[in-house]
């Protein structure tokens, strides 16, 4: 039976890592 | 005649100050020292300085980056208070002055270079998540960061689901079973899940000299 549920987050830090505030590439974008 | 020349003295002084050849740009007094102590080459340091000048003059042109300019550079808008931006800014602000000089900016960004040591990236990210700077990451801090991230992105998860995610995280990370994650446990977790460090590497830094070519006009050294 195909597992079609949403991807299970392995842990909280993966979720936190999605925060745009932790992505510093904005420095380089005009 | 002499009196006439006296009148020109202030004018000559300001012209000399302007063209004072050894008047180093503020913060870039010793690019070679910075190059030796970071992963950047001298040219990359000088190119990074061009970026620094752009950011540090966005609000107040004082050769320093304040938190507003830092946030503006990252998000191009004045975001409201952000837990994470505050933490990142504080980690850049190694002199704890509330404002960033070029040296602090360059040394901090060096950790984000693709060639930087993984251990340095692990250390920086641990400091970032250790909100209260106690030398370990507590459950409450993890929950605060999860809730902040969800609020930022407009995502909604029930408290049960959040607690579940945090339980799972501590099951994996807290191998010493003391209810907190210390630096060793964080390193082990990250080595098992390298994606947790994805924000710690900025590919842009690899081609900083092509992104900011104008540095060549002010370059002080021939960096071959």
Automatic annotation (TrEMBL), chain B:
Record Gene3D superfamilies: EF-hand
GO process terms (BP): calcium-mediated signaling
Record bears the keyword Calcium: yes
GO MF term set: calcium ion binding; kinase binding
UniProt cross-references to InterPro entries, sorted A to Z: CNBL1-10, EF-hand-dom_pair, EF_hand_dom
Chief subcellular location: membrane
Keywords: Calcium, Membrane, Metal-binding, Repeat
Database matches in PROSITE patterns: EF_HAND_2
Compartments where located: Membrane
GO annotations of cellular component type: membrane
Annotated ranges, domain EF-hand: 80-115, 117-152, 161-196
Source superkingdom: Eukaryota
Assembly: Homodimer. Interacts with CIPK.
UniProt record similarity statement: Belongs to the calcineurin regulatory subunit family.
Its biological purpose: Acts as a calcium sensor. CBL proteins interact with CIPK serine-threonine protein kinases. Binding of a CBL protein to the regulatory NAF domain of a CIPK protein lead to the activation of the kinase in a calcium-dependent manner.
Name used for this protein in its record: Calcineurin B-like protein
């Amino acid at each position: 039976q195909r597992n079609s549920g949403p991807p299970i987050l392995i842990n909280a830090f993966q979720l936190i890592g999605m925060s745009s505030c932790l992505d510093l590439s904005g420095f380089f974008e005009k | 005649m002499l009196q006439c020349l006296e009148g020109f003295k202030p004018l000559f002084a300001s012209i000399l100050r302007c063209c004072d050849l050894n008047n180093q740009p503020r913060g870039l007094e010793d690019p070679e020292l910075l190059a030796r102590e970071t992963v950047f080459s001298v040219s990359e340091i000088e190119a990074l300085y061009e970026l620094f000048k752009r950011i540090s003059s966005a609000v107040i042109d004082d050769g320093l980056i304040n938190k507003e300019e830092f946030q503006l550079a990252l998000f191009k808008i004045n975001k409201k208070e952000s837990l994470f931006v505050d933490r990142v800014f504080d980690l850049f602000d190694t002199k704890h002055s509330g404002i960033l000089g070029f040296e602090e900016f360059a040394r901090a960004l060096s950790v984000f270079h693709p060639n930087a040591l993984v251990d340095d990236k692990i250390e920086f990210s641990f400091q970032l998540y250790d909100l209260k700077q106690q030398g370990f990451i507590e459950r409450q801090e993890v929950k605060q960061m999860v809730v902040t991230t969800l609020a930022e992105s407009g995502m909604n998860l029930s408290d049960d689901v959040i607690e579940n995610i945090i339980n799972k995280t501590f099951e994996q990370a807290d191998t010493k079973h003391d209810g907190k994650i210390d630096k060793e446990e964080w390193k082990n977790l990250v080595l098992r899940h390298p994606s947790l460090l994805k924000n710690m590497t900025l590919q842009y830094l690899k081609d900083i000299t092509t992104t900011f070519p104008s540095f060549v006009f002010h370059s002080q050294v021939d960096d071959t």
